[in-house]
């Protein structure tokens, strides 16, 4: 176990970004793309809770619609312009023969969601189809963290945001993992304590209470409102789930965002979570499940709870790993005392 979404066998992550060392707010490159490749036969769904989403192919993932399987998910910077990165991923997958097989060729299924990072670098410096193609071609089991991929220009309140990942394995043998791009209008840190809201993870992350003067200085910065917004994520599991079951897991996973980002799901955020189920591990369904319920219900309860847990941890991992870009301070910059 590496503690990443790629602990779900068959899931690969690729990232590509461009960042100028001398980038300042509003000038220079500071954006990128993160791609999650899924093995053949992976079922997908999505749940969006923010008021300002930027997405592609999400309607296709509704349980009432025809296509069940997803080939990849794209998370990208560049606002709606960045959705073009999915074109490059489709090209890569077509070259591999992946997609819905039709007379004359294949059509890869590549849903996507974007974050609004345009004011960080130059407005015209945003991911293209080549970003998606390059990210997909580089996909592997190692997941870089922080200021990489779609997290390059990300911001979390007044702090630098970024890419984070986490995973867990349940007693049933099912693995659940998440990768997230944290670019929230809300903060991940309590201005009263200088520590992340997710208090139960503080010790595990090696953090301690920072000195009072650092907390006060951070609280002053906390009053600066950031127009940057949207946290996007992919949760993956190796369990056998239906399309509707994947949708329930995506719903539950949003609790992980609410635990770590405050406020969350605002009118300014496009918070979107995708769920992928590879179907490699089949867990016997509980025969005692009432006939009026879906037989998946007991299984989904545990997977949904795990999805919220790993997504919450991934948010913190991404913010703590972030390095400064365009003068946006990191958690370590503003609260170095939290590291002991």
UniProtKB/TrEMBL annotation:
Location within or outside the cell: Cell membrane
Principal location class: membrane
Gene3D superfamilies named among the record's database cross-references: L-amino peptidase D-ALA esterase/amidase (3.60.70.12)
GO MF term set: aminopeptidase activity
Membrane topology: Multi-pass membrane protein
Record keywords, A-Z: Aminopeptidase, Cell membrane, Hydrolase, Membrane, Protease, Transmembrane, Transmembrane helix
Cellular-component GO terms for this entry: plasma membrane
Function: Aminopeptidase.
Family statement drawn from the similarity comment of this UniProt entry: Belongs to the peptidase S58 family.
Protein name: Peptidase S58 DmpA
Species name: Mycolicibacterium elephantis DSM 44368
Lineage: Bacteria, Bacillati, Actinomycetota, Actinomycetes, Mycobacteriales
